[in-house]
Write the structure tokens for this entry.
Amino acid sequence: MQSESLTKTSIGIRINCHSIITEIECIEARIVMFLDLVRRRKSVRDFLDIPVEREKIGMCLEAARLAPSACNSQPWKFIVVDDRQLKNRLCNAAFGGIYSINSFCKTAPVIVVVVSEKSKFLARIGGMFRGTKYYLIDIGIAIEHFVLQAEDLDLGTCWIGWFNEGAIKPILNIPAHEKADILIALGYYDKEKLRSEHDREPMDKIASFNSY
Ligand SMILES: Cc1cc2nc3c(=O)[nH]c(=O)nc-3n(C[C@H](O)[C@H](O)[C@H](O)COP(=O)(O)O)c2cc1C
């Protein structure tokens, strides 16, 4: 490591990368930081009534903007709704009737609507041949970039796939032919209230080396 750099690790200590510890140790610290961030992120369904700074939202959007996508199509548009009145209107429309299970989103100060845009021609043709909807993979990566950046800024998120799409489109002037696939509820949250463990399959069930 050429220049001195200070790194804040997951456990809050500061590591001086200049000569005192080796570069490998620095890399290990960064890996721990990333895994720790991934471990910290959990779906938040109860938000604090505190506005979210536009600067922080901008950082989340930047993380999404830099996401990879098939043929670099970048088939996404993020509509940030942080105007309180508009957000309430949006939530009332999105989470009525059969969608009311997600009414908790009304506590979120920000809702981000993710619209899937058209992929580049090559990605669409490739997707047809492969039977793979690359654009859904693409927006998934971008959204996860967004939510991980949010978590790193102490902001909670919840992916929302169950909502009344038809009811929200006119509110945000989303053209009828566009598809709003996912909402992201975003806001500050009480970390003490969040459960500590992820409910996940064991490693040997989801991964293997060299054979299925
Ligand atoms: C595509 C997608 C759609 C989701 N839709 C909803 C939803 O409509 N409502 C909800 O409460 N959570 C929703 N979630 C959150 C999942 O329930 C949650 O990620 C999962 O249970 C794992 O929990 P964790 O996020 O706390 O690790 C969705 C997640 C994804 C990735």
Q: What stands out?
A: Residues 27 and 191 are 28 Å apart (CA to CA). Helices lie at 23-40, 54-65, 84-94, 121-130, 134-152, 165-168, 203-206. The pocket of flavin mononucleotide is lined by residues 42-43, 45, 102, 158-162, 198 (CB under 6 Å).
